[in-house]
């Protein structure tokens, strides 16, 4: 028996997310092997279980599977990133009806904090699952454990034994948890990518349980602090709270309260553009490309006529180019802007990431974008040395009237040349 359980985490995971989104609107795809293709229908970006069984690989070029489509064994859809984001937002909304604290981790996964909930957790998770299906049409699975890492692994188990578990696996006692840890390969553990897995296997750490039992200090020395934390999490010790993870998060948000109410479209344009630029820097730092940008603007909740609106802009192809992200943010803003409204807050969010490493750029990409890597790298390096905003796009103002209220801010003595402390020598 376990002693008192302090924390309980769950992971709600959309099954074959992109394919399932397509099935909501095209039920003839249900029960048929289906894949979603990248922009310009180049390669496979999402598969369902049935297409996996047909041998279709992630990233496989379309021409290699064309025969399967022609022989009617496989269905294909072009990617519709804005739609997938909208469905994902709806799933989150249902989740928020059941749990007070959650973290949207990626387009198809949300962590939920179930600590202190005095209900039958299995029943609650089955209810969340069936409500998401009823209200949105998205099939999901749920894994629950004492830590986020265990919740993720238990979700893996719920998928592996779908029929037996009803896609919900709740494990809070150590004996059952250890049984699963002994079964699962270490590569199934969150934070153990294929490179880490290979190194661990050389140390005879082949199963998740081996990692849980390994000397934690040695892991930190040989790898890094995140692997140590991951190993501790496997033993039930919480190291990652909500919004913390061993891997970079799969979305980036940039949002701010304005220092004063903003009415003008031009000022909102500047604000949203500078948030997009800031998020782009972060995106490049994480080595990711994004397929989707969301913009939102809102008044204060306490206004007489509160107004709050968000919109989703799907990007033509995955990008980390500030110019494209600014353009998308402006397009989105135009859709939702309402005149004569006292805006108090705006923001953008990037989501649906693809690792830049190994990404094959689109053959049909606009030629003027081909040198974007060099330009962006130059901007990033200048801004790193000279200070953020040294090189920026024309729409981003140097100073703004809508910025944070910071009338009593002390100068940036140590990080800006022009704000260095001046010493008078007499
Ligand atoms: Mg999924």
UniProtKB/TrEMBL annotation:
Keyword Transferase tagged: yes
Family matches, as Pfam families: DUF4113, IMS, IMS_C
UniProt-listed InterPro entries: DNA/RNA_pol_sf, DNA_pol_Y-fam_little_finger, DNA_polymerase-Y, DUF4113, Rev_trsase/Diguanyl_cyclase, UmuC
Class of enzymatic activity (EC top level): transferase
Keywords of this entry: DNA damage, DNA repair, Nucleotidyltransferase, SOS mutagenesis, SOS response, Transferase
Organism listed in the record: Pseudomonas haemolytica
TM region(s), chain numbering: none
The protein's Enzyme Commission number: 2.7.7.7
Family per similarity comment: Belongs to the DNA polymerase type-Y family.
Entry's Gene Ontology molecular function annotations: DNA-directed DNA polymerase activity
Name of the molecule in the record: Translesion error-prone DNA polymerase V subunit UmuC
Gene: umuC
Annotated PANTHER family: DNA REPAIR POLYMERASE UMUC / TRANSFERASE FAMILY MEMBER, PROTEIN UMUC
Keyword Transferase: yes
CDD domains cross-referenced by the UniProt entry: PolY_Pol_V_umuC
Domain UmuC: 9-193
